[in-house]
Structure formats: C-alpha cells, structure tokens
Amino acid sequence: MEKLTDQILHDVIKPRPEHSFKGTFGKVTLVGGNRNFGGAIIMAATASVCAGAGLVTVCTDQSNSGALHSQLPEAMFADFTNDTQVASLVTAATTVVVGPGLGDDDQGLHILKNVFAHTTIQQNVVVDGSAITLMAQEQLTAPRGNIIYTPHEMEWQRLSGIKIADQTPDRNRAARDKLDATVVLKKHHTEIYAKEQTYQLTIGTPAQAVGGMGDTLAGMVGGFVAEFHQTPLKAVLAAVYAHSAIAEQLAKNQYIVLPHQISRALPTFMKKMEAAPDEHHIGFLD
Ligand SMILES: NC(=O)C1=CN([C@@H]2O[C@H](COP(=O)(O)OP(=O)(O)OC[C@H]3O[C@@H](n4cnc5c(N)ncnc54)[C@H](O)[C@@H]3O)[C@@H](O)[C@H]2O)[C@@H](O)CC1
Ligand SMILES: Nc1ncnc2c1ncn2[C@@H]1O[C@H](COP(=O)(O)OP(=O)(O)O)[C@@H](O)[C@H]1O
Ligand SMILES: [Mg+2]
Fold first, then answer.
1. How far does residue 265's CA lie from ligand 1's centre (Å)?
2. ipTM computed for the complex
3. How is domain 2-272 classified at the CATH fold level?
4. Which SUPFAM superfamilies does the protein's record reference (predicted)?
5. Which residues of 247-259 are buried (b: 16+ CB within 10 A; e: fewer)?
C-alpha cells in the first residue's frame, strides 16, 4: 500500500492558467438532500465551490432552496423531483456527485435511477452515502462514467458484501476489481483502491468524526476531479489528503472540526499548495 504524502497536493494543485474562464474548471452537478438531510448536500456543494469547480448546480428538495442560496449563493438550484431538469443538468455536467443526504426511500431510488440513466462515459461520477446504500439494496447496475465510490465501512459492507471485520486489503481489492471503479474506503486512515494501486492516508484525526464530514469529502472529490480533470485519480487522492490535512491543522486549536470549516479553509490552503514545496510552510492557516 502506497502511503500518501503532501507531494500529491503539489502534483495536482498548480497555478491557474491566465487564459481561462469558469468553464475551464468543470461543471459539477450534485444530487441529494431530501427534506431531512438538506445539510448534507449543502455541505457537499460548499466543498465543490470552495475547491474551485467552475460551475456548481445542486439538485435537491425544494425546501432546501432558501438555505442553499443563503449559505452558498455561488451555487444554482434545481428541484430534484423534476426528472427532465435533473436529466439535463446531469448530462451537461463534467462531474456528477450523487447521494449525500439523498435518503434510501422510494423517492431517493427514483431520483438515483434517473441520474444513473443520464451519466455519460466521459464524466466523473462520485457515488456517496444513500446512493451507495440504494445501489446495494436494489442491486442497481453502475452508471456510465469514471465511477468513484466514497463509502464508509458500513456502506462498503453493503456494497461489497464484506463484513467490516473482514475488510482486508486483499478482499477489498478483489471487490474493487469486480466493480471496476475507484473506491475511497473512509475510516481512520482511509484507503483508496484504484485500478493499479492501493493508497493509504496516514493523516487525519478523530476531531473529524462529525456528521457531514463525508458529505464534505464527496463534494471536495467532485470539485477536484472537475477542476483537475487531466489527472482524475491524482485529483481524488489530493482531495482525500487535503480534507484531512486541513482538519489536522484546525484540530490543533479545536476539539472537533466542523465540516464546513474545511471547505472554507480550502481557497487559502490551495493557494499555499500551488507554490513549490520549499516555498510554503506547513502552518498554512497561520
Ligand atoms: N446534516 C445532514 O443532513 C447529514 C446527512 N447525512 C446523510 O445521511 C444519510 C445516511 O448516512 P449515515 O452514514 O448517517 O447512515 P448509514 O446508515 O448509512 O450508516 C451509519 C451506520 O453505519 C455504522 N458504521 C459502521 N462503521 C462506520 C464508519 N466507519 N463510519 C460511519 N458509520 C459506520 C454506524 O454505526 C451506523 O449504524 C446519507 O445520505 C448521509 O449523506 C449524514 O452525512 C449526517 C449529516
Ligand atoms: N477517527 C477518525 N479519524 C480520521 N478520520 C475520520 C475519523 N472519523 C471519521 N473520519 C472521516 O470523516 C469522514 C466521515 O464520513 P461519513 O461517515 O460518510 O460522514 P457523513 O456521512 O456524516 O458526512 C470520512 O472522511 C472519515 O475518514
Ligand atoms: Mg457519508
């Protein structure tokens, strides 16, 4: 297993080209957030915006519209029960993030099937939270695209059939190979199962054990793969690393870290990381 270092940040986060516009940095469509879990998709969208995705649209329950706009005016809103609109927003995206707070009821299933029917082979598709649970429960076929699953250990148990206690690297890799996708297995020292290699995060803190932390990671992964689309796997690895690196910095002075604080720290963090390694100092929030 290859241990990730902050080199991955320097490999991925580069100064932005002068000749660019929002379209250069990808379009992310996020789908999730039912009446009860609106915060999940707002946190995910906040992470995508703060990571630097060019355009971000959120398909969610109508009741979340006001909260979304007041928290994140940079994002656009669509009603996730409008199948036609969701289909066209999914098709128009370069990256789709589906699942945070979607819910595993009939409404969530209907929306997920509509999303899965409209992704394309060129897109990155981040499948998180309820979308993973529904896929496992309903034995749904994976959608088209570069699929990135971001399960926690229980979601991975549901998707892979491997009980948490039996989730060894060898078994996880065999399950990944069957899925033919990138799997970000979230836990203390998250493991990333990619086609050729397995990577391990050796940073991160229990201060991250807070609801919404994974929703934020899903949005960050979506934002990074949209923005750094030339190197999608490295973008995933950099997002996973940055998420915990920022959390560790905040945890120096905080007992717990709020997920949105990670997102809000991203622009400053990324500015420090665009410089060559010897030009930055590690206390980037100082
Ligand atoms: N503010 C919000 O709106 C929030 C919404 N959320 C959404 O709620 C939905 C359900 O997700 P949940 O994960 O809460 O529920 P799940 O039922 O999918 O998973 C939680 C269960 O898994 C077990 N578990 C075992 N190992 C675990 C591990 N390493 N990490 C996490 N759980 C582990 C827990 O004990 C618990 O029984 C998702 O769509 C999620 O995005 C959550 O993210 C919490 C915050
Ligand atoms: N003790 C811990 N040490 C390091 N990271 C943790 C710890 N607990 C949780 N995390 C991280 O927090 C996130 C939790 O994801 P998830 O359970 O999906 O949260 P949610 O669905 O509530 O947003 C993952 O990225 C996981 O690696
Ligand atoms: Mg989650």
1. 24
2. 0.98
3. UDP-N-acetylmuramoyl-L-alanine:D-glutamate ligase (3.40.1190)
4. Ribokinase-like (SSF53613)
5. bebbbeeeeebbb
